[in-house]
Design a protein that fits this description.
heterodimer; A: 435 residues; alpha/beta; 50% helix; 10% strand; globular; B: 385 residues; 4-stranded parallel β-sheet; 15 helices; binds iron/sulfur cluster
C-alpha cells in the first residue's frame, strides 16, 4: 500500500522559468497599459485569433488568464463572493465570477493590473458562457464588442458556408481593428506573424509527442500550463516560438538521457478536465505520490489540438485562422469527438488509466462526463477515475475525499498489475519509442 | 364545440404524455406516423413536418419517470431537463421516433446531443448551430445553409426528399398556429384574468404534442371561448415571467404563483415554438424566409444574442407592453444562460424601478409551500406599497 507523500520536489525546472519569464513580460505590458492606455482587446483562449490583433499591435488581454491567475494565487474567493452579491448564482461559471468581481473591485483600469479594453472580441468558440461573459464585460465597462460566431463542428468537416461565415467575420473584425487603430491591414505582416505561430505550434506538437516516451519528460496535464500561456496568449511572437524551440531541446535531452519528470514513473494516465487551480499543487501531489504522470490531457488542447498536425499556414492566412477556430481546438468539438481524442491519447501515448476531473462550474467540460466514464470503462476497458471539484472556486475542493478516491483507484490499479504478473501496462518499454 | 375547461383538460392530459405516448395518440388517426424530437429552444419544425413527421417537443419528463440511467451520466449540478431527456432515450420512450434535433443554446444541451447520439443508435440526431452574429454580411447565407444542411440530412436519413414546396406549405400552417398563439397572448395581456397562467401554458405546450393540423382547430376554439367568456376581475400584482425559455416549470409552480397573489400578463414559456413576431413569407425560398425570420423577426431569448437588440431592452419592452408591475424570474435550477442573464436583467430592472423576485424550479419539485410564502410576501409588499 502506498501511503507516503510525494517529496515536495521542485518540478518547476527550466521550462517553468522560461515560461514564467515570457508571461511576466506580457503581464508587465498589461500593467503598464492599464495606466498608459494603448489599444487593447479582450479575447477568449479557445481557438482564438490573436494573430489578427497582433497584426495591428493591439494588446491581447485574456480574462480567462486573469481568472486563472487569481485562483492559482488563492485570491479568487473574495471576487467570486463579490459577484454573487450582485446576483451571480453559486452555479454559474466561477471564471466569470472571479473576473467580474475583480473588475468591480477596480482590478481593471487605471488603478488595477489589467487595462480596460478598447474593444471586446468575443470569439464564441464552443463555450456558450463566453458570450454572456463578454456581454457582461461590455456592459459593465461600456466597451464596444465584436462577436465572432464560430459554427460548432457538427459534421466530419466544416462546410464551405461555415468557413465563409467565419472568414467574413474575420474580415469584419479586421475592418474594426483598422477603425480602432487608424492603420491599414497589412497581409504580409499577418503572414510573418503566422510563421511565428506555426513555429511555436510545431514545437508544441513535438513536445507533446515526446510524452509518448517512457518515462515522459514532463507531465502533460500539470506542466502543460507552462506551454499553454505561450501558445495561446503569446502565439505569433518570436519570443513564444523561441520558447518552444528551447523547451523542445530540453525535453529531447531528457528523453535521450532517459530522465522523466518523476523519479519513478509507475502509472501513465490521461487526464480530462481542467485542474483545480486553487489547489493545484495539492492535487498534483496526490498523483505524484503514486508515481502517476499524465502523458496527455484534453484541457491543454482548449486553445488548439496541434498535436494532431495542424499549423497555421502563412500562405493561406485567413483560411487557416478560420480552420483553427472551427476545427482544431477542443472546445468547438463535440463530446464524441472528445471521446475519440482521449481514446487516441490512451492508445498512442500508452496510458494505463483515464482520470476525469469534473468541474462543477464548467459545463462545457463536465456535462455528461458520467457517460464518458461509462464508455471508457465498459466499452473500452480503460480503468477510469472520476473526481469532482472546481477550477476556480476553492469551496468545492475536499482534499480528504479527493485523496481517498485517488488512493483507492491507484491501489486497485496496482493490485491489478500485481495479479497480472507485475509487468507494465504499456507496450512502450523504456527507450524503444521513436516518434 | 368544447368549452374552455374541456380544452384545458385535453391539453393538460396531452402535456403529461411521454413522447412515445403522444405519438401513439396521434397515430390513432394516422397509423403510420413517425415522430421527431425537438429539444428547446428553437428548431425549424416546418422542415420536420414537411418530411411527414410529427415534431414533438422534448421537455424532459416532468415527474413521470425515475432517473435510473441518466443520473449516472449527468452530474448533480446539471439541469433536470437534460437528465430526464436523456432518460427518455435510454428508457425507450422515444422509440417510435426517427430522431431528434438539438441546438446551440448552452453547453449542457450541446453535450446532451452527443450523449443521445451515442445512446440512441439508429436514430438521426442532429445538432444545429444557430447564428449568434445576426449582422455579419454572411449571417443570412450561413443560417439558410444550416437549415438546408438539416433538411438534407433528414431527407438522407428518411430516404426521401423534403421538397421546398412541402416546407412552404408547412410554413403557412405554422404561421397560422403562431398567429393564433400571438393573438391569445395578446388577449391575455389585455385581460390577465381571462386565462390562468397554468391553463395557457398547457394550451401552448399541447401544440408540441399534436400534429399542427389537429392543433389549429383546438387553438382556434380555445381563442373563441376565452374571447367570448366574461370573467370577474381579480386583484393581483401584474407580472411577467422570465427565464423559463427551455426547461418548463411544473404546472404546480404556475398555479402557486397566481395563488400567491400574482396575475401573469406575459411569459417566455414555450418561446421557441412561438418565436416569430410576424408571419413568415411563404412565397419564395422557404428556407431563406425561415433564416431571415430567425435573424430579424424573433422574440428575444436568453439563448439568442442580438448585438443591436439587447435582451435587457427586450425584457423592459415586454414589461411595458404587458403593463406589468413586476417580474418573476423563474429559471430552471442550474440553467446557466438564465442565471447569467439574471444579472443583467436584474440590474436593468433595478435601474427602471421594477420590482422582481427569483424563484428557481426543477422537475421533481413537489412542494410549493415556501414558494407560496415568498410570492405572497412579495405580492403583499407591492399591493400595500
Ligand atoms: S464554462 Fe468552462 S470553458 Fe466556459 S468560460 Fe467557464 S470555465 Fe471557461
Ligand atoms: S435548462 Fe438551461 S442549462 Fe438546461 S439545457 Fe436548457 S438552456 Fe441549457
Amino acid at each position: 500500500m502506498q501511503t507516503q507523500t510525494a517529496p515536495d520536489k521542485d518540478y518547476r525546472g527550466t521550462v517553468h522559468t522560461l515560461s514564467r519569464d515570457i508571461m511576466t513580460d506580457w503581464m508587465t505590458e498589461l500593467k503598464t497599459a492599464a495606466r498608459v492606455p494603448v489599444p487593447s482587446a479582450y479575447l477568449m483562449i479557445s481557438g482564438n485569433c490573436v494573430e489578427i490583433l497582433r497584426c495591428f499591435d493591439i494588446l491581447p488581454v485574456f480574462p480567462e488568464i486573469n481568472a486563472l491567475q487569481l485562483a492559482i494565487r488563492k485570491n479568487s474567493l473574495p471576487y467570486i463572493i463579490k459577484s454573487e452579491e450582485i446576483g451571480y448564482a453559486s452555479d454559474n461559471c466561477a471564471y466569470v465570477k472571479a473576473d467580474v468581481g475583480f473588475t468591480l473591485c477596480g482590478g481593471v483600469g487605471e488603478s488595477g493590473t489589467i487595462p480596460k479594453p478598447s474593444l471586446i472580441v468575443c470569439n464564441f468558440v464552443g463555450c456558450n458562457v463566453y458570450i454572456k461573459w463578454f456581454e457582461h464585460c461590455a456592459s459593465m465597462m461600456n466597451v464596444p464588442m465584436v462577436i465572432l460566431d464560430i459554427p460548432f463542428v457538427r459534421e466530419d468537416k466544416p462546410s464551405r458556408e461555415d468557413i465563409e461565415y467565419v472568414m467574413c467575420q474575420l474580415r469584419e473584425l479586421i475592418a474594426e481593428c483598422e477603425r480602432l487603430t487608424g492603420r491599414k491591414f497589412d497581409i504580409d505582416r499577418l503572414r510573418e506573424i503566422l510563421r511565428e505561430s506555426a513555429r511555436a505550434e510545431r514545437g508544441w506538437t513535438r513536445a507533446k509527442e515526446l510524452c509518448k516516451h517512457r518515462p515522459a519528460p514532463f507531465d502533460a496535464y500539470f506542466d502543460s500550463i507552462n506551454m499553454m500561456g505561450p501558445i495561446n496568449a503569446l502565439r505569433g511572437t518570436k519570443e513564444a516560438a523561441d520558447f518552444f524551440d528551447r523547451i523542445v531541446e530540453e525535453y529531447e535531452r531528457m528523453v535521450a538521457d532517459g530522465v522523466g519528470v518523476l523519479d519513478e514513473e509507475r502509472f501513465r494516465m490521461v487526464v480530462e478536465g481542467p485542474p483545480p487551480y486553487p489547489y493545484y499543487r495539492n492535487f498534483r501531489n496526490l498523483f505524484e505520490t503514486w508515481g502517476a504522470v499524465a502523458v496527455q490531457s484534453t484541457y491543454s488542447t482548449v486553445g488548439g489540438t496541434w498535436e494532431f498536425g495542424f499549423c497555421h499556414d502563412p500562405d493561406r492566412p485567413l483560411e487557416s485562422i478560420a480552420e483553427q477556430m472551427i476545427v482544431h481546438n477542443l472546445c468547438n468539438r463535440s463530446m464524441l469527438e472528445r471521446y475519440r481524442q482521449i481514446k487516441c491519447y490512451v492508445e498512442d501515448w500508452h496510458a494505463d488509466a483515464l482520470v476525469i476531473h469534473s468541474i462543477k462550474s464548467c459545463r462545457l467540460f463536465s456535462a455528461g462526463q458520467g457517460d464518458m466514464r461509462e464508455y471508457f470503462t465498459k466499452d473500452l476497458g480503460v480503468p477510469t477515475l472520476m473526481v469532482e471539484s472546481d477550477l476556480e472556486d476553492p469551496r468545492y475542493y475536499a482534499e480528504a475525499q479527493m485523496k481517498n478516491r485517488i488512493d483507492a483507484f491507484f491501489e486497485a490499479l496496482q493490485y491489478k498489475r500485481l495479479r497480472q504478473g507485475g509487468g507494465g501496462f504499456s507496450d512502450a518499454p523504456a527507450g524503444t519509442m521513436k516518434s | 364545440m368544447a368549452t374552455t375547461p374541456d380544452i384545458v383538460r385535453i391539453c393538460r392530459e396531452l402535456i403529461d404524455l411521454l413522447p412515445d405516448e403522444a405519438l401513439e395518440r396521434a397515430r390513432e388517426s394516422r397509423p403510420d406516423l413517425r415522430g421527431f424530437g425537438v429539444f428547446p429552444v428553437y428548431a425549424p419544425v416546418e422542415i420536420i413536418h414537411a418530411a411527414g413527421l410529427m415534431p414533438v417537443g422534448l421537455f424532459g419528463a416532468g415527474n413521470r419517470i425515475e432517473l435510473s440511467h441518466a443520473e449516472a451520466r449527468f452530474q448533480s449540478f446539471i439541469c433536470s431537463i437534460a437528465k430526464s431527456t436523456l432518460e427518455l432515450f435510454l428508457g425507450g420512450h422515444v422509440q417510435l421516433f426517427e430522431g431528434a434535433v438539438f441546438s446551440s443554446i448552452c453547453d449542457v444541451a450541446r453535450n446532451l446531443a452527443s450523449l443521445v447520439k451515442r445512446n440512441a443508435p439508429g436514430q438521426f440526431i442532429d445538432y444545429l448551430h444557430m447564428p449568434q452574429n445576426m449582422y455579419s454580411a454572411q449571417s443570412s447565407a450561413y443560417t439558410r445553409a444550416e437549415l438546408n444542411r438539416f433538411r438534407t440530412n433528414l431527407a438522407a436519413h428518411l430516404g426521401r426528399p423534403v421538397a421546398d414546396q412541402a416546407i412552404a406549405e408547412s410554413l403557412l400552417l405554422y404561421n397560422r398556429v403562431r398567429r393564433l398563439l400571438r393573438a391569445i397572448y395578446d388577449h391575455r395581456r389585455q385581460n390577465p384574468c381571462s386565462i390562468a397562467a397554468a391553463d395557457l401554458f398547457a394550451v401552448a405546450m399541447a401544440g408540441t404534442r399534436m400534429m399542427p393540423e389537429d392543433y389549429l382547430p383546438l387553438l382556434a376554439n380555445f381563442f373563441d371561448q376565452v374571447r367570448s367568456t366574461r370573467v370577474r376581475a381579480r386583484d393581483g400584482v401584474r407580472v411577467v415571467i422570465e427565464g423559463a425559455f427551455c426547461e418548463q416549470p411544473p404546472i404546480g409552480l404556475l398555479e402557486t404563483l397566481e395563488a400567491g397573489g400574482c396575475l401573469v400578463q406575459d411569459d417566455d414559456m414555450m418561446i421557441g415554438w412561438r418565436l416569430f413576431t410576424q408571419d413568415i413569407d411563404g412565397d419564395g425560398d422557404p428556407l431563406a424566409a425561415l433564416a431571415e425570420a430567425y435573424l430579424r423577426e424573433s422574440v428575444y431569448t436568453s439563448v439568442r444574442h442580438d448585438a443591436r437588440r439587447p435582451r435587457t431592452e427586450g425584457l423592459a419592452q415586454r414589461v411595458r407592453d404587458a403593463g406589468a408591475e413586476a417580474v418573476l424570474f423563474t429559471p430552471a435550477k442550474f440553467c446557466e444562460p438564465a442565471l447569467l442573464d439574471y444579472v443583467l436583467f436584474r440590474s436593468k430592472l433595478d435601474k427602471d424601478g421594477v420590482p422582481h423576485l427569483k424563484v428557481e424550479f426543477e422537475e421533481k419539485m413537489w412542494t410549493y409551500e415556501s414558494v407560496r410564502t415568498e410570492v405572497e410576501t412579495f405580492a403583499e409588499s407591492m399591493l400595500f406599497e
